[in-house]
Amino acid sequence: MGPVERLHMSVFSQSFSPCGRFLAAGNNYGEIGVFSVSAALSPDAGAASLKPALTFRAHEGPVFSLLTTDGVLLSAGNGEISAWNWTELSKKSVKPLWSKRPTYSSSLEIPEINAMVWNARDNSVAVGGGDNSIHVLDLEHGVFKAVLHGHTDYVHCLCMREREAELLSGGEDGAVRMWDSRTGRCVHCLEVHKYEACARPQHGKWISCLTTDSDWMVRRPVRRSGVRGAPALSLWHLRSLSPTSVFPLSGCQRQVAFHQDAILAVGRGRLCLTACWGGGEGADPVHAPEPEHAAGQRRQLGTQG
Question: Which parts are the WD repeats (predicted)?
């Protein structure tokens, strides 16, 4: 990869190995880089330690999503899912276990796969993307067993509400849908943009990321390209299906997670939010590096051997 390609490289996805010693990162050129976390974090780490231990071409187009299941790394690009054995990758051996494509309603275009989530209960993976649907892959038998219809635009994010065996999905239609993973039926649909506390009509209604702790959900709408600002990050109580807190971050958030008694959210801008969620009201923004500095780090850690 030349300097021009490296300059325009973007990392779209990442996933840790089951042991936590390795980090896989997928870029817009269809490559996956496997980094040694222990080497990168070592006190004696040099420039070579920050480079991937292994780089390989996984897809013809961008690697939009990565997911680790029980010993297997799943990668997804334009309409295709491939499986890689983590043990073999750690030995620098690159050979896919299998590659599969969902059955799409039209053969004229290949929709991107934006999100994947693993349901450990039945060893299945739900995938969502540009065809507005969620396809459920049975990993035990290697077949797609269900298609969930309901979203009217791109599906951007998925997560499991494990205790209730429910799948949550968010898309560009502004809806968060809750599905019974056993029957495939949509049990609730939250149209977030219709709640006055969360509505930001001037910024659109897309949902870019969400996460759940069974009783609680955090979701984030994303703005349309070119529009400054973004709708507010919000915390929802899922038993009452109502928002309880709205966090006024100015930038668009790309990832959100629960960690102990805090919410972690990160995206565009210099702030990473840590907020108390167990019924509290506090929010503590933490300064992150400048975007230019972060971009430089991303290029330095790019998937190039």
Answer: 148-189
Alpha carbon distance 39, 248 (integer Å)? 37
The CA angle 302-22-102, to the nearest 5 degrees, is 80
Q: Which residues contact 295 (CB under 8 A, 6 or more apart)?
A: none
Residues 6 or more apart in contact with residue 69 via CB below 8 angstroms: 118, 123, 125, 139
pTM score, whole prediction: 0.82
Specify the DSSP class assigned to residue 39.
Answer: H
Q: For residue 275, what are the CA distances in angstroms to 159, 259, 269?
A: 20, 10, 17
Could you give the CA distance from residue 226 to residue 242 in angstroms, rounded to a whole number? 30
Token pair listed for 146: 């269900």
Retrieve residue 230's tokens: 């973004």
| 2: its two tokens | 């030349």
What dotted CATH number matches 1-149? 2.130.10.10
Q: Which letter does DSSP use for residue 4 in this model? A: H
d(CA 7, CA 22): 24
Q: What would you report as the CA-atom Rg of the chain, rounded to the nearest whole angstrom?
A: 19
| Geometric angle at alpha carbon 267, from 128 and 279, rounded to 5° | 90
Alpha-carbon distance 64 to 77, whole Å? 5
CA 57 to CA 60: how far, in whole Å?
A: 8
By the 8 A CB rule, do 210 and 176 touch? Answer: yes
In the chain, domain spans: 1-149
Least confident stretch, 67-71, 97-101, 189-193: 189-193
- For residue range 106-128, list pLDDT tens digits in order: 777 789 999 999 999 999 999 99
Distance CA 206, CA 221 (A): 5
DSSP 8-state class, residue 300:
H
* pLDDT per position as a tens digit, 158-214: 999 988 889 999 999 989 999 999 999 999 998 877 776 676 666 667 888 888 887
